[in-house]
Specification:
GO terms for molecular function: heme binding. Belongs to the cytochrome b5 family. MAPR subfamily. Pfam families: Cyt-b5. This is Cytochrome b5-like heme/steroid binding domain-containing protein. The protein is of the alpha+beta class. It has a single domain, classed as Roll (Flavocytochrome B2, Chain A, domain 1), CATH 3.10.120. 20% of the residues lie in helices and 13% in strands. It has 3 helices and 4 strands. The chain has a 4-stranded mixed beta sheet with strand order 1-4-3-2.
């Protein structure tokens, strides 16, 4: 792979996604926690490194879905370490190994190609 090649295609969605321009609206941790897919009047949100994605259209994040554990949280640490444990769904990731930080960056790229960015966690220290 040369330095002029585009980023890996493995992160591209199979079906092209038309995304809205990213927003940087402040979203509180409390507001995020209420957007866990259990309230039909709220979007389902997941934050990665302080950036908030709307994952409402993906049933995997709804109650009973395989990734519902991430909904309404910033599970950066869990994504970096490929964990589905609720106790790992935390925003802190600075103390992780480089390999895990790379995995987290790949997840961020994956999400950014599929889901609208609707805001940033207010006061996030893990951006």
């Amino acid at each position: 792979m040369t330095e002029h090649e585009p980023e890996p295609k493995r992160f591209e969605p199979k079906v092209p996604v038309q995304l809205d321009p990213p927003k940087d609206d402040p979203i509180t941790v409390e507001e995020l926690s209420k957007s866990d897919g259990t309230d039909p009047n709220r979007p389902t949100l997941v934050a990665i490194k302080g950036t908030v994605f709307d994952v409402s259209k993906n049933a995997a994040y709804a109650p009973g879905g395989q990734y519902h554990v991430f909904a309404g949280k910033d599970p950066s640490r869990a994504l970096a370490s490929s964990s589905l444990k609720p106790e790992d769904c935390r925003p802190d990731w600075y103390d992780l190994e480089e390999k895990e930080k790379t995995v987290l960056d790949e997840w961020f790229l994956f999400f950014s190609k599929r889901y609208n960015i609707v805001g940033k966690i207010q006061g996030a220290t893990n951006a």
